[in-house]
Amino acid sequence: VEWPKPLSGPQRLLRAARFYSKVIPVLASYYFAQQKIDRAAASGAPLSEADEAALWAEVDERGSTVIADTISELQGFYVKSGQVVSTRVDLFPKCYTDKLACLQDDLAPMPSELAKAVVRQELLGGEPLSELFDAWDDEPLGSASIAQVHRATLKDGRVVAVKVQRPAIAPKLRGDVQNLK
C-alpha cells in the first residue's frame, strides 16, 4: 500500500495557485456585476429589480459551481471550509449552500487497503488486523475530509466504529490554512 506523502513547499504553492486561480475570478464577477448595476443607475437607466435579481442569480450560480468544483478537486481544509459555508444559509446564497451540502457526507473514501494499513501501523504496530479484530468492513460507514469510519468486530465480539485518519492529512490541512490566511 502506497502512503500519500506530505505536500512539499512547491506543491503547497501550486495548490494555493489552483485555488486562487478559480476563486479570484468568482470574486471579480461580483465586483463587475456591482459595477454594471452602478453604471446603469448613474446613466439614469437603472436595472429593474427583476433584471438586477437575474444578474445576481447568474453570478451566484456560476460562482457556486466553480467554488464547489474547486473544493471537490482540492479536498483538504478547503472541504472543511466548504462544509462550514454549506451550513450558513443566513450568510450565503442558497445555490452555494445547496452545492456545498454534498461535502457534509459525500466525499470519496480512501481505499480500504490504505485504511487497513493505517490501522495496522498506528494502532497495532504493524501487526495484522486479526490481532484485534474478528471482522472488518471494507466499505466505510462514512468518509470525510480528515478521516473515515469503518465497522469492525473486536475479538470479544463487540461491534465498534473505527475512525481512521487519512495519512499525511495534518500537514496538508496546515498548508491549506496558511494558504487561506
Brief synopsis:
This protein is α+β, with helices and mostly antiparallel strands and 181 residues long. Helices cover 56% and strands 12% of the residues. It has helices at residues 9-42, 49-74, 77-87, 94-100, 112-122, 169-180; strands at 133-136, 142-143, 147-154, 159-165.
Helix content: 55-70%
**So what's the overall shape?**
elongated
User: What does the main sheet amount to?
Assistant: 4 strands, antiparallel
**Class inferred from helices and paired strands:** alpha+beta
* N-C termini distance: 34 Å
Uncertain segments are none
Please count the helical segments. 6
What value does the Rg take, in angstroms? 22 Å
Q: How much β-strand is present in the residues? A: 5-15%
In total, how many beta strands?
4
| Succession of helices and strands | HHHHHEEEEH
Protein model, in words:
The protein is α+β, with helices and mostly antiparallel strands. The chain contains 6 helices and 4 strands. The chain has helices at residues 9-42, 49-74, 77-87, 94-100, 112-122, 169-180; strands at residues 133-136, 142-143, 147-154, 159-165. Strands 1, 2, 3 and 4 form a 4-stranded antiparallel beta sheet that branches. A hairpin with a 4-residue loop joins strand 3 and strand 4. Helix 3 packs across helix 4 (94-100). The model has no long low-confidence stretch (mean pLDDT 91).
